[in-house]
Amino acid sequence: MDDRGCPSGLEIAEPISNAADPRAFVKTQADGGYSLELLVRGAKCAGCLGRIEGAVRSIEGIEVSRLNLSNGRFTAEWHKKDLEPRQIVQNIVDLGYGAMPFQSQTADAQKDKDARELLLAMTVAGVASMFVMMFSEPIWIANKYGEMGTGTRTLFHWLSALIALPAGAYSGRPFFKSAWAALSKGHANMDVPISLAIILTAFLSLYATANRGQHAFFDAIVMLEFFLLIGRYLDHKLRQRSRIAAQELLALQAVTAQRLNADGTTTSVAVGNIETGDTLIILPGDRFPVDGIVLDGTTQGDFSMITGETAPVLIGEGFEVRAGVLNISGRVTYKATKRSDDSFLSEIARLIEAGEQSKSKYVRLADKAASAYVPVVHGAALITFVGWLLVGAGFEKAIWNACSVLIITCPCALGLAVPAVQVVASGRLFKSGILVKAGDALERLANVTNVVFDKTGVLTLGQPHLVNQSEISPSDLANAALLARASRHPLARAIARLAGPGKSVKSANEVPGFGIEGEIEGKKARMGRAEWVGAKIDEQSETELWFKLGDENPICFKFEDTLRKDTPKTIKALKDMGFEVEILSGDRKAAVEKAAIEAGIENYRAELSPFDKAARLDELKAQGKNALMVGDGLNDAPSLAKAYVSIAPAAAADASQSASDLVFQGDELGAVLEAIKVGKLAKARVLENFYFSAAYNLITVPIAILGHITPQFAAIAMSTSSIIVSLNALRLYKAKK
Fold first, then answer.
1. pLDDT tens digits, residue range 307-349?
2. What residues have CB less than 8 Å from 172, skipping those under 6 apart?
3. Is 454 a catalytic residue?
4. Phi/psi at 323 (nearest 5 deg)?
5. Phi then psi for 568, rounded to 5 degrees?
6. What does the pLDDT read at residue 100?
7. Residues 219, 454, 632, 636: which is the catalytic one?
8. CB neighbours (10 Å) of residue 124?
């Protein structure tokens, strides 16, 4: 870094504006390029995303311009040395959005604050609507039957104003702030006509009340805000991606490590302070904090987070280990070959974030339909106002008619079209044991063309199952369990589960790479590899565990991971629906082939790394195919984040659940089928809502322009359209078998 806080080699021009200076937060990449991460505030839809990315991409030298709507993180990358980072911030600010250096805690706090503000504003508008209606309904009835005097009507109008104006001012802040930010930068968004309708209605109603007029429409103000805020809040909550997937993944990294010094002493260091070349000591039960090469010692490692394979891997001198691998049995010394920021876990975390960002570019139907809303509504209102003036109507009638057009076209039904369906569909799936975590997952489910499964824990139950129990006596099982309860080996734990709770051998000694030994009733007992316990076989299977007590013959415990009971049925149903099905697994080829044959899947790939799986999904995407990924292991987290849409079982690793769009409970794979079916039904309901919204506007807008709809009736019509959209969404429940 130079004396100005810039990475060395980065040439900075003179400041170009008063935008915040982000130079201290520019990072130098391994290839000599530069990157900057910002927290962007105020971006709410695909339109915002496109404007921001386009504005930064227009800067000469910018190679990557990417915004993640879920957490507000914006990433820019470039190689041009004289590029001014402040220009990036300036271009974003010029669009009316806030920008500051990205910190995950700040992003989380901002998202939580937005949700709280929307909920509070919605509550205030809803309560105010109920109170205002107590005064509005008597006026409506009296206007029809002529049973209320002018003084009483005016008093009721003032009482309505006393409630509606402060409540409307408070609840309208999300619209007012957004509209002002857009207008101050010389462009308009959907909140501009909404704000204009609210403000015009408030001023015209005050004017009418002050002049003892017959009509005032304070109820329309809070009703408009209430229905709009319902849609905005639901959309905010439903499409808010889980922002902790990468954090949970990195939490698997050890917090500290034991560094071996040159004089033979050890020092406890934070993982972030480990440098390439440091010598580290890893004890049994610890995870390897960074990538490295084993210098001394032998142990077994749990690589299930990398390969999905539950069988331990023998680790010895010269073995390359990855960050996050669990050391099962022995003490080893190894040399760090990467820092924590460049480790295997960090690479997976970056893949997860990249997958989330690519998914945030999914353009919703609602955003597309709303893109033409602002110019059309403004144009219709202006035509109405000018037209009525030209035909000789007074200013008051012209402005009331224009206001009615603004109110009746407020996109309540359009705003609820997607969230209402998502809420109902999510409720139906929840009752089926499926949790929807991403608001747009249902839309993406409707467009799936390929279904990709991991093997272990997805097609299978993910737990080793003893297949030769009939060959093992109860006494042999009980004795073996005494040793098994003292071991961390996955197959030993399976024996312990089968035998149930009980005692363990206190003096047990685990021999790295071979097994565990101890003494049972004065006899030497061993459990582990065949040759170690004295069994004579041609080849040792990784799914076998041998036990020998004293001079008795060795006993073989054979295991396999069985398919879920409905796996073949589910795969057949998916094929019948026209989906292409395949397996991507890190397991050995023989195990994957066996599971594929039993499940009825012809296309499968084995011994894949997490990056191989992600590359296959990229390959499918390049072919124009939309892949649904179903995975459970930590090694599946990047693929789940990168897939077009993803599902994980409830037993999956926390980071994999966070990276997925849906999570299903139970042991049946049929949840995948149910999710796809509901996704298709949800898309149909959304389209129906859009068609209704379009028809509603085609019918009501001309009537409002012709002056046959008052603001009062416009508010009622707008509310009715929202109710119809919600009722149509409820039809999803009737579609359930």
1. 555 567 778 888 888 887 888 878 889 999 887 766 666 665 5
2. 121, 195, 198, 221, 225
3. yes
4. -60, 140
5. -60, -40
6. 78
7. 454
8. 21
Torsions phi, psi for 695 (to 5 deg): -65, -40
Q: What is the pLDDT of residue 726?
A: 77
**Inter-axis angle of helices 373-390 and 395-408, nearest 10:** 160
Amino acid present at 509:
N
pLDDT at 684: 87
Instruction: Give 566: exposed, middle or buried? Use CB within 10 Å, 0-12, 13-18, 19+.
Output: middle
Q: How far apart are CA 69 and CA 240, in angstroms?
A: 8
Length, in residues, of the chain: 737
| CA 195 – CA 406 distance, rounded (Å) | 10
CA dihedral for 675, 686, 423, 237, sign (positive or negative): positive
Contact 485, 504 (CB under 8 A): yes
Supply φ then ψ for residue 614, to 5 degrees.
Answer: -65, -35
Q: What is the pLDDT of residue 167?
A: 94
Instruction: Assess contact for 173 and 191: CB atoms under 8 A.
Output: no
Give just the sign of the alpha carbon dihedral 609, 610, 614, 616.
positive
Quote the CA–CA distance of 245 and 707 in Å, as a whole number: 54
- How open is the CA angle 350-352-353, to the nearest 5 degrees? 65
* pLDDT of 1: 40
pLDDT at 372: 59
3-class SS at 401? helix
Give the residues across from 281 on adjacent strands: 258, 333
* Residue partners of 582: CB distance under 8 A and separation at least 6: 450, 451, 452, 453, 601, 603, 604, 605
Evaluated on CA atoms 268, 274, 277, 280, the torsion sign reads positive
pLDDT of residue 638: 82
Give the pLDDT confidence score for residue 242 in this predicted structure: 39
- Helices 104-145 and 150-171: crossing angle, nearest 10°? 170
To the nearest 10°, the Cα dihedral for 86, 88, 93, 96? 180
CA 78, CA 35: separation in Å to the nearest integer?
6
At 80, which amino acid appears?
K
Element (H, E) at 279: strand 279-282
Rounded CA gap, 735 and 351, in Å? Answer: 37
Quick one: which of 419, 412, 421 has its CA closest to 684? 421
The helices-and-strands tally (H runs, E runs) of the chain is: 25, 27
Which residues have C-beta within 8 Å of that of residue 441, sequence separation ≥ 6? Answer: 645, 661, 662, 679
- Helical pair 218-238 and 412-431, crossing angle rounded to 10 deg: 40
pLDDT < 50 stretches in the chain: 1-18, 104-107, 239, 241-247, 351, 354-365, 367, 737
